[in-house]
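Task card 7
Instruction: Convert sequence to structure tokens.
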Amino acid sequence: MTITKLKAKNQVTIPSIIMKRLRLKPNELFAVDVEENFIKLIPVKVEPKYTAEELKAVDKIVAQEKSRGKTVKAGKDFSHYLKKVSG
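Output:
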């Protein structure tokens, strides 16, 4: 067992031996949970919401519509509009 300290702003340093063992890198994201009296840190990977192709389609639409000043609501309205114009 390794001991570490809770620092200002609720920060905890993960000892390097654990970083190496789990092959963790700086800026990794963790899910944090409490189980009985234990704090669990679970490394997670966040997948992008949109593919590169979808983002290119959005950029194309933005470029086309920018001069027209058309407003589209976020969410389902935007998804429907995106399908309609890229279709």
